[in-house]
Structures are given as structure tokens and as C-alpha cells.
Amino acid sequence: MEVIIKASYDEISKEAGRMVRKALLKKPNLVLGLATGSTPIGLYNELVCMHKEEGLDFSQVVTFNLDEYVGIPASHPESYHTFMERHLFSKVNVPTSNTHIPQNTTRNLEKFCEWYEQQIREVGGIDLQILGIGVNGHIGFNEPSSSLGSRTRIKTLAPSTLKVHTRDFGGDLDTVPKMAITMGVGTIMEAKQCLLLASGKSKAQAIARCVEGPITAEVPASALQMHPKAVILIDEEAASQLKRIDYYKWGYENKLRLEADSL
Ligand code: PGA
Fold first, then answer.
1. Mind listing the pLDDT tens digit for each residue in 219-257?
2. Statement: the pTM of the whole predicted model exceeds 0.90
3. Pairwise CA distance, residues 130 & 61, whole Å
4. Residues in a beta bridge with 216
5. In terms of residue numbers, what domain contains 176?
6. Atom 8 in ligand 1: which residue has the minimum CA distance?
7. What is the CATH number of the domain that holds 116?
């Protein structure tokens, strides 16, 4: 696990943008796993800027979103379909046919989940998976107690998640969807690289448990400790409960020095 600590949300967004650009320049038909929520918005803004100002090309990129609510239509203002359209898809040149978001209105949800996994396999797997983390340690909607080997399926949202998400539904808990389709922890772990972003004090405990706690289904993000290429890119506030902050910073400085020397 590589832990990178930056001073602010702005800086993690910029660094994440640089990482995605690097991956995209190396592989124009990059298979990108995408996340929603407030955290990746800064990254998407960076990518939109890179597309507009430098012509960063998304024409061959294939995307798979982690999750989508069940029970609201794709056209709902708070659906993840709408979110992705608003923050990224309508602003870069990724073909709609290359984008995949779980279909919350499909009749046979179980079959759909199998199909979604099949689509990921058919393009050769996800190259780079962007992740956020819930205050309870979830990734995607894999809530605490999710199997660390789980695949794409329906999950019921945890009460702590519902509470956080009421902010997007006008503060009304009753209107927040209670279920979602989500890639499983096992699905996420098959991505060739994972990039988890977190910002702010509210994420500090979840980050400490994810990075330095035991690997446990109680903290689904802790499964990333077993991932061969996971980067945890966080700001100072989200890092504030980590025990080995100095080591992570020193390790990152040395890596930058090594990269600069090899140029
Ligand atoms: P947030 O959500 O980015 O809105 O904090 C992250 C998550 O719940 O995975």
C-alpha cells in the first residue's frame, strides 16, 4: 500500500488527475473504474480541464462505475447516472457506448449483476479503479460485514451511510434509496491498480482502520492491504489518525527524489 499525504483536497484532486493522465497516456484504451460521491468531483474537474486545455483524449476509454442506487430512475437528479453525466461524461469525449453504470431499473437484478461482471471481464478487467471511502469504511456500497470475496450484487445501505446520503436528498431520510447495486470487494480487488481518495476529518478514523487496522469484513476498505498496487491518496485531515504519518511522508519524498534522479 502506498500512502500519499497532501496538504489539501485541491492537492489530492490534482495529484489524482496527474495519475489518471499518466495511465491514459500510457494506455489510450484505459479501462477506468469510477466512483461517485463528493470526493472524486475535484478529480473529474481536473480531467475535464486536461481534456479542454491539453486535449487529453477519452475517445477509447472504457468506464465502469462502482455502484448505483436501486429504486430511483436513471434520470433522477441524485442517481449516479445523472452524477456521472453532470461531472464527467458530458464534458469529455468518452463515447456513451463505452460507459457502464449499473442499471437500477433492470427487471432481473441478479442476472444484470452477472452481466456486469462479464462486461468487465470481456474488456480484460479494470486497469485503474478510483475509490472513495465511507465513514464506516465501506468501498463502493460494500458495507461493514460484506464478504471480502463478494462480487457485483445488491446491498442494503447501512444506517450510517443513509444518514450521510440524506444531504443529497434534501435532508429527508425517507427519500434516500435503501438499496444499491455495487461491485463487490472481490471485483474491486481484481482491478490492476486501485486509487482511493479521502479528504477531511470525518474520514480520519476510516482511513486509520483501512491502512493500519486488521484486515476485516468490518472495514471492507481494509481488503486493500492485500492489493498489490493500491494507492491511498489523502489530505492531512484524513491522515490525522494514522500512526506512521512521518514514514509515509518520508517514503513519498524518497520516491519523488528517485524519480527526479532517473529523469
Ligand atoms: P463521499 O463518499 O465522497 O461523498 O464522502 C464516499 C463513499 O461513501 O464512498
1. 999 999 999 999 999 999 999 999 999 999 999 999 999
2. yes
3. 14
4. 219
5. 2-261
6. 134
7. 3.40.50.1360
